[in-house]
């Protein structure tokens, strides 16, 4: 009897326990979440500025405060300091503020370098709790103000920059064609427009005794012999060529034919060389004749596309006019209209210049930016190569037409660019009166045409240096800074690398023909006007520019 009673009692307890839960599932007590503690405050060198710090000294003090006292022994492995490539940086750690604050003291950081301080959730409090959320702090050290190279005179520095940059076109010139490679990683891809700049650089190199006249002449003979057999499309060269074969390399799918703008840069270089090699001997006489044949073969007027009142940039044997890009101002293409108007064989009339390029005055601006009035073009001037490419040959000094004073235009453009970088409205670290210059260049992860209206925090040395004729004081300040203060970060085998960002601690290792060429040539125009004088001395150029309505003491 006692046995049956016990069995009924146990069964009743089981029944009511199941009914209490409302189901037949077993009851499970909830598990309490593990205890955590939280981040409370951060100071770097005594200041809080979010989680990114610029311009730090090489021994910054980082203090991170938490809601609970920290177990110092758990710092190892849970607080790490590395550079951007993951290499560890040494530091010491200590506790203060009743052990709620961890003090991180790096031993000696490198200048102009980005470091990442990571605090993982494995950092334990004294009670054994984990950090609620991981923390990342970016530390960017300042430019070391010491000179990286020995001081020389400004004149010596200008010569050094020209000589080193000239090596891009001489030492690195394509061995078969003699033309300029697109960039320092381009292999056999040579660029027609960049080669025009390279030819002007070659003339500069001869005149500065970087190479002999005989060696320069031999290089020009190689270039001209190659161009005589290379692919042409109604006389215009493509943007890119194979330096071994002379066959077109498409710049894009439909851009596999003539590029009139790149061709105009090349022709300006060739005409400059023709004017320089003025000897009466057979070699120089033959060179001039070959250059004339090449220039006279460009069908500028055909690129009006069915005789319209504007020039068009591209034509393809496969896609005809599909690119459909009229060449309209204001930008880098003034030289295209000048070379077209100057042609003895396929010239364009003034009406094409007025309606196509100048858009009957629509390219005028007249507004002021950063205290400087801009005669032509887009707001704030656009990228600085607008003021360089055409004016490597065309001398803007005293040059006027119905639309502008081009001396005022080029100086205004450069000065607005300088004033913008000095004002630095976006707060890009590193910008200032010594570090300025926005133009088309490589950027971190790509390429863009930087300008005050497209500012991604990247400075291109070619922008300030090629503006030397317009802003000599400001450009010289930039040159000294790039060379002496940034040193090997920006200076290499072929002069200055293409671009850099002190904000992102990114430094290009690339060099581009279209950026190196203007440095050599425009510094020379600032110093001696050599290339300006040669190009402007060409009879066709004088006649062509006068026909377009230009007036200048140099015409």
TrEMBL record:
Name the InterPro entries for this protein: Glycoamylase-like_cons_dom, SbsA_Ig
Source organism lineage? Bacteria, Pseudomonadati, Bacteroidota, Sphingobacteriia, Sphingobacteriales
Residue ranges annotated for the SbsA Ig-like domain, each copy included:
60-136
Superkingdom in the source lineage: Bacteria
Q: Which UniProt keywords apply?
A: Signal
Instruction: Please identify the protein, giving its name as recorded.
Output: Glycoamylase-like domain-containing protein
In this chain the Glycoamylase-like domain maps to 325-538
Q: Which PROSITE patterns match?
A: PROKAR_LIPOPROTEIN
Query: One Pfam family name from the record?
Result: Big_5
What is the annotated signal peptide range for this record?
A: 1-19
Record's Gene3D superfamilies? 1.50.10.140
């Amino acid at each position: 009897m006692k046995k049956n009673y016990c069995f009924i009692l146990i069964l009743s307890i089981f029944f009511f326990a199941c009914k209490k839960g409302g189901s037949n599932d077993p009851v499970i007590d909830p598990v309490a979440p593990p205890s955590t503690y939280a981040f409370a405050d951060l100071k770097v060198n005594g200041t809080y500025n979010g989680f990114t710090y610029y311009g730090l000294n090489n021994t910054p003090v980082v203090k991170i405060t938490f809601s609970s006292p920290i177990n110092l022994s758990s710092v190892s492995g849970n607080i790490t300091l590395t550079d951007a490539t993951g290499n560890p940086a040494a530091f010491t750690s200590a506790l203060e503020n009743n052990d709620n604050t961890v003090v991180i003291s790096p031993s000696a950081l490198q200048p102009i370098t980005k470091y990442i301080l990571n605090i993982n959730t494995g950092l334990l409090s004294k009670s054994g709790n984990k950090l609620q959320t991981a923390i990342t702090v970016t530390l960017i050290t300042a430019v070391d103000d010491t000179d990286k190279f020995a001081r020389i005179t400004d004149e010596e520095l200008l010569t050094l920059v020209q000589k080193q940059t000239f090596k891009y076109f001489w030492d690195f010139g394509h061995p078969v064609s003699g033309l300029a490679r697109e960039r320092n990683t381009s292999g056999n891809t040579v660029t027609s427009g960049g080669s025009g700049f390279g030819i002007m650089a070659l003339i500069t190199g001869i005149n500065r005794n970087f190479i002999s006249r005989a060696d320069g002449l031999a290089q020009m003979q190689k270039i001209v012999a190659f161009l005589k057999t290379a692919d042409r499309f109604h006389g215009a060269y493509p943007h890119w060529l194979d330096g071994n074969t002379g066959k077109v390399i498409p710049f894009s799918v439909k851009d596999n034919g003539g590029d009139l703008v790149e061709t105009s840069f090349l022709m300006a270089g060739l005409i400059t060389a023709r004017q320089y090699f003025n000897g009466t001997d057979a070699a120089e006489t033959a060179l001039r004749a070959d250059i004339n044949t090449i220039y006279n073969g460009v069908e500028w007027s055909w690129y009006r596309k069915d005789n319209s009142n504007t020039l068009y940039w591209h034509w393809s044997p496969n896609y005809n006019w599909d690119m459909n890009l009229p060449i309209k101002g204001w930008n880098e293409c003034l030289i295209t209209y000048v070379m077209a108007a100057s042609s003895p064989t396929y010239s364009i009339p003034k009406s094409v210049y007025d309606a196509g390029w100048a858009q009957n005055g629509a390219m005028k601006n007249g507004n002021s930016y950063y205290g400087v009035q801009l005669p032509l073009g887009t707001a704030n001037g656009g990228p600085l190569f607008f003021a360089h490419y055409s004016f490597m040959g065309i001398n803007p000094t005293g040059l006027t037409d119905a639309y502008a004073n081009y001396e005022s235009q080029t100086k205004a453009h450069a000065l607005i660019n300088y004033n913008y970088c000095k004002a630095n409205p976006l707060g890009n670290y590193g910008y200032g009166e010594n570090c300025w210059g926005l133009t088309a260049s490589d950027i971190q992860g790509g390429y863009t045409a930087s300008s005050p209206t497209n500012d991604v925090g990247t400075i291109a040395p070619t922008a300030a240096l090629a503006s030397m004729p317009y802003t000599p004081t400001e450009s010289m300040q930039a040159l000294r800074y790039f060379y002496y203060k940034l040193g090997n970060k920006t200076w290499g085998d072929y002069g200055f690398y293409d671009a850099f960002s002190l904000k992102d601690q990114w430094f290009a290792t690339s060099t581009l023909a279209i950026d190196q060429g203007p440095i050599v040539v425009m510094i020379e125009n600032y110093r001696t006007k050599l290339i300006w004088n040669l190009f402007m001395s060409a009879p066709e150029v004088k006649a062509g520019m006068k026909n377009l309505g230009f007036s200048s003491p140099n015409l």
